[in-house]
Write a structure and sequence with these properties.
Number of helices: 9
Order of helices and strands: HHHHHHHHH
Radius of gyration: 20 Å
Shape: globular
Strand content: under 5%
Largest sheet: none
Helix content: over 70%
Number of strands: 0
Structural class: mainly alpha
Distance between the termini: 55 Å
Length: 223
């Protein structure tokens, strides 16, 4: 049953929608946590430590954090694989060019694939930069996320990589939220306008929230 569901286009779209919702919920929580940096190093570093102690003493140190990471990895992989397979299936179903021009899709729709690639590469860089410290610009300090974030956004390339990726995230959410709603049966003609408005607002708020951090460092608000 599960195999049959996965092999169908509807099944793959459902996997994309559900995994997309999981990642969206994570992004909302993540941006709220990121904005704590504006309250100073003590609060932000305390927040970083708290993430590793959530659930104690029932959960061991970092177990909850690793559980979240595993769920996110599964969601990202499932989202990427289903997106790739749907894309390949779409290309095979339409091997020749259309005789008549199709109406132009929105900018977000036309850049979903490139946006996905950009975000995939960004995730790798982001982990190596601020989680493991392998590509960190300055001297990576374990247990001092505030100082590490300031180091990263004190470099021009750190800002460029992050801002470009966050713009891609915003465009992805703008199209993906509405698309997921249709797949999961939430969308309808009467709700389309409201769903598109929610998608636009979510994309704008999340993009602005994430970009506020490097801008804060660049302007000296965060230092």
């Amino acid at each position: 049953m599960a195999r049959t569901m996965w092999d169908s286009s509807v099944g793959k779209k459902t996997v994309m929608a559900v995994s997309g919702v999981i990642m969206l919920l994570y992004l909302v929580a993540h941006v709220i946590g990121n904005l704590k940096i504006f309250f100073g190093p003590e609060e932000f570093n305390h927040y970083g430590h708290w993430l590793r102690t959530v659930g104690e003493p029932f959960m061991h140190y970092e177990w909850t954090l690793w559980l979240v990471r595993i769920v996110l990895i599964v969601a990202v992989v499932a989202h990427a694989v289903s997106a790739y397979q749907l894309s390949r299936r779409d290309i095979k179903a339409r091997p020749s060019k259309y005789v008549h021009k199709k109406p132009r899709a929105s900018y977000a729709t036309r850049t979903m694939r490139w946006g996905g690639i950009i975000m995939g590469l960004f995730i790798v860089w982001h982990v190596l930069d601020l989680t493991t410290g392998h590509v960190h610009a300055g001297g990576f300090q374990e247990g001092h996320p505030y100082e590490n974030v300031v180091d990263t956004f004190s470099t021009w390339y750190g800002n460029v990589i992050y801002i470009v990726a966050m713009l891609a995230v915003g465009m992805h959410i703008r199209h993906g939220f509405w698309s997921a709603a249709q797949t999961l049966g939430v969308g309808s003609r009467t709700r389309d306008r409201a769903l598109k408005t929610v998608a636009n607002v979510l994309a704008l708020l999340l993009t602005a929230g994430f970009i506020a951090v490097p801008v804060g460092v660049m302007t000296g608000v965060v230092s």
